[in-house]
UniProtKB/TrEMBL annotation, chain A:
Superkingdom, natural source: Bacteria
Transmembrane stretches, start-end: 20-41, 61-81, 93-112, 127-147, 159-179, 199-221
Task of the protein: Required for the export of heme to the periplasm for the biogenesis of c-type cytochromes.
Membrane topology: Multi-pass membrane protein
Compartments reported by the entry: Cell inner membrane; Membrane
Keyword Lyase appears in the UniProt entry: no
Organism from which the protein derives: Tabrizicola soli
Domain Cytochrome c assembly protein: 6-183
InterPro entries the UniProt entry points to: Cyt_c_assembly, Cyt_c_biogenesis_CcmC, Cyt_c_biogenesis_CcsA/CcmC
Family the UniProt entry places it in: Belongs to the CcmC/CycZ/HelC family.
Name of the molecule in the record: Heme exporter protein C
TrEMBL record, chain B:
Family to which the UniProt record says this protein belongs: Belongs to the CcmD/CycX/HelD family.
Segments crossing the lipid bilayer: 12-31
Official protein name in the record: Heme exporter protein D
NCBIfam families, sorted: cytochro_ccmD (TIGR03141)
InterPro entries recorded: Haem_export_protD_CcmD (IPR007078)
Membrane disposition: Single-pass membrane protein
Keywords, comma-separated and alphabetical: Cell inner membrane, Cell membrane, Cytochrome c-type biogenesis, Membrane, Transmembrane, Transmembrane helix, Transport
Natural source organism: Tabrizicola soli
Function per UniProt: Required for the export of heme to the periplasm for the biogenesis of c-type cytochromes.
Location of the protein in the cell: Cell inner membrane
Length: 242, 50
């Protein structure tokens, strides 16, 4: 059995129909567990007070905003190289999900930044690259909507995805590239000094797992819709010709 | 409810806004899914009749 079997829309629909209920159940369980644990059962931070509870939303959403773009890049490259329609549709389906995560990261970051830094926004390397990533998401979604021919749209959005990957990468490593700005380094690290304290770490891991599954669930659901939409367009085109 | 002190607005605001954004994404996706599924079923039924 090959992974390319799932590039067949029929096979993808069958497999995703089986996987989706499990993914939904696991997503809800992990998100509820992680967020309730983090919000109600973890102490305040000695420096940041109760604002540390924002970490359970901010870090997973920021992480997934970047990873969603990475997934879109892989799917776009598969489209460019192998011309599998499901991969192009999966990239299209992932964009609004990635945009939502980016908005959550920006909004929660501003709400966290105001009491801690004294400002809602700063033209800090990480914040700025994240804002540009958000604009790339909007541009990507707009480009898909603007082009009528789906194959041309898939080609052009794949190129845009490739270009936007620079900013996705910068969003992740801006703090390391430019050792300046307000934003701290990684919250999760193998370096004990840098990593968040153990009491916050476990619920944060559960929240990250929940956000990963939320992304998978939403992409599966939205890709199924895109496949149905493509079939609908094909049938309507056949009707017009007949 | 944990004691959030002077940062209650920032913490609760973050959770409320994140919940609203996720709810909007899920709601919109479910609505689109239902609309496309219904339209496809109608066209398939129509073409099946011919």
């Amino acid at each position: 059995m090959s992974i390319w079997e799932y590039a067949n829309p029929k096979k993808f629909m069958q497999t995703s129909a089986w996987a989706l209920p499990w993914a939904v159940a696991l997503t809800v369980a992990l998100l509820v567990t992680g967020l309730v644990w983090g919000f109600f059962f973890t102490p305040d931070d000695y420096k940041q007070g109760s604002t540390v509870k924002i970490i359970y939303l901010h870090v997973p959403s920021a992480m997934m905003a970047i990873n969603a773009w990475a997934m879109m890049l892989v799917a776009s490259m598969i489209w460019i190289v192998r011309r599998h329609h499901v991969s192009a549709l999966a990239a299209k389906a992932a964009a609004p999900v990635g945009l939502t995560f980016t908005l959550i990261a920006l909004v929660t970051g501003a709400l966290w930044g105001q009491p801690m830094w004294g400002t809602w926004w700063a033209w800090d390397p990480r914040l700025t690259s994240f804002l540009i990533l958000c604009l790339f998401y909007l541009g990507y979604i707009a480009l898909w909507s603007a082009i009528e021919n789906p194959d041309t749209a898939a080609d052009l959005t794949s190129i845009l995805c490739l270009v936007g990957s620079v900013f996705a990468l910068l969003s992740r490593y801006a703090v390391n590239f430019w050792n300046q700005g307000l934003h701290q380094g990684a919250s999760l690290s193998l370096d004990k000094e840098e990593n968040v304290a153990d009491v916050f770490w476990l619920p944060l891991l559960v929240c990250i797992a929940g956000f990963i599954l939320l992304f998978i669930t939403m992409v599966l659901m939205r890709t199924r819709t895109e496949i149905r939409q493509r079939r609908l367009q094909a049938l309507l085109a056949r009707e017009r010709v007949a | 409810m944990p004691e959030l002190g002077k940062y209650a607005g920032a913490v609760i605001g973050s959770y409320v806004l994140a919940a609203l954004l996720i709810a909007a994404l899920v709601g919109l996706s479910l609505w689109q899914a239902a609309r496309v599924k219904r339209a496809l079923a109608e066209v398939e039924a129509r073409q099946g009749e011919k």
